[in-house]
Amino acid sequence: MAFILEDEFGDIIAKARRGLGLTVGQVATESGIEAKDISQMENYTKKPSRDEVDKIASTLQLDSNKLNAIATESWSPKATETKYDPSLEVITITAKVGGYPVHAYLLICTKTREAAVIDTAANPQTIIDRIDKININPKLILLTHAHGDHANGLQDLEDALNCPTWIHANEPKPRSQNDLQLLRHGDIISVGNLKIKTLDTPGHTPGGCSFYARSTVIVGDALFAGSVGNASISYEKLLSSVQENLLSLPKHTVLFPGHGPATTVEEEINHNPFF
After folding, report:
1. CA-to-CA distance for 198 and 217, rounded, in angstroms?
2. Domain segments of the chain as ranges
3. pLDDT at 79
4. Element housing 212 (H / E)
5. Fewest beta carbons less than 10 Å away: which of 77, 122, 150, 215?
């Protein structure tokens, strides 16, 4: 595949099964596939046939054709050669937390060189070094959610950058050097000439949110290319918030997740089996 997806077939069916509150045995009974085979599919020790994909998709309320494209590794998001407004740049910093890559982002107003740091990737020094290298002026830190791989090291980052942190009002609060600034759906924050809009995307966490600037959205762990985040809080809220607040955006909008490759609204409408 051109890109390695954050979630492939086994992850997707496990997330959908858990989201619906089903055991492997219940999926087996409903689909007519043996439980051991389903477990092996979730653990990547057995590849599904098309018939098995269809039966599992029907049981788990997933789109069969989209799921099969991922099962057969015949789809990955197209390379996103994004055409940003000249005043906007997106820079991705990738670190490994627990063995898995995680992204932090910088949204930069190129006219003023002011910037927003989005998430910490649990690696504040990498972010600090990058900021120093490209000579920008960070004005604030935004957190999509408070899980450790996105918020650890926040105090070090705040201390080095001397700027406030914003997080959704419904999200558990990480340790901070300062009083955290609280956001709600629709709130807009300015960084130089850049306007960043808060979009509610809860379900993975109570107050998970995404940050929308022109044709770009930083989506945290609400959505991955071809998948969604773990619905630790609410599967229904996760799917509905992604559908209503992300997939309703213009089709060319680029979605940058906390893990895995970037994608677009159009790619997800056409290829994400959860929708």
Report:
1. 10
2. 9-71, 88-271
3. 62
4. strand 209-213
5. 215
What residue type is 122 in one-letter code? A
By the 10 Å C-beta count (0-12 exposed, 13-18 middle, 19+ buried), 243 is classed as middle
- What would the mean pLDDT of 114-135 be, rounded to a whole number? 94
Between CA 29 and CA 41 the distance in angstroms is 16
Calculate the alpha carbon distances from 80 to 32, 74, 163, 233, 247 in Å. Answer: 40, 18, 31, 31, 17
Whole-model pTM? 0.94
Tokens of 174: 């990480």
Fold of 88-271: Metallo-beta-lactamase; Chain A (3.60.15)
Contacts 24+ apart (CB under 8 A), 161-170: 161/117, 161/128, 161/131, 163/138, 163/139, 164/140, 165/140, 165/141, 166/140, 166/141, 166/142, 167/142, 167/143, 167/207, 168/198, 168/200, 168/202, 168/207, 168/208, 168/209, 169/207, 170/202, 170/206, 170/207
CATH topology of domain 9-71: 434 Repressor (Amino-terminal Domain) (1.10.260)
Judged against a pLDDT cut of 50, whether residue 175 lies above it is answered with yes
97 — pLDDT class (breaks 50, 70, 90): confident
Contact 94, 6 (CB under 8 A): no
Instruction: Tally the residues of the chain.
Output: 275
Percent of the chain with pLDDT over 90: 87
User: Residue written as tokens 């788990």?
Assistant: 60
Q: Identify whether the C-beta of residue 136 lies closer than 8 Å to the C-beta of residue 108.
A: yes
**Across 37-44, average pLDDT:** 98
Structure tokens at 142: 């935004």
Q: Confirm if 204 and 249 have CB atoms less than 8 A apart.
A: no
Q: Mean pLDDT across the stretch 166-188?
A: 96
Contact predicate 251/261, CB 8 Å: no
